[in-house]
Amino acid sequence: MEPNFTEEQRYILAxxxxxxxxKFYKHLAVYIVVNIFLSAIFIVGDINDGDTFNEAVFNYxxxxxxxxxGIGIVFQxxxxxxxxxxxxxxxxxxxxxxxxxxKKI
Length: 105
Known about the structure:
Layout lengths: L6 H42 L4 H5 L6 H18 L7 H13 L4
């Protein structure tokens, strides 16, 4: 049973949701900009330490921060958008139709 919200309550809920989504996109933008900057610094540092350009660029240690901070971004995305981002009712209906049309079943 869905609760009945007043127009003002729905507005407040919608505003909070939009703020949460906006905060996620800002965090994602900071993640990308900061990690590009840090990766460039690490690569230049490796080159100054005597590595070739290819060795510095393909050194996975220069990208660890992408992975660990990225895990946090994934959790924030799941918190912001929920699991429905991947498996919503629309997805379920498409899969049911796909399996119904499959001749192998």
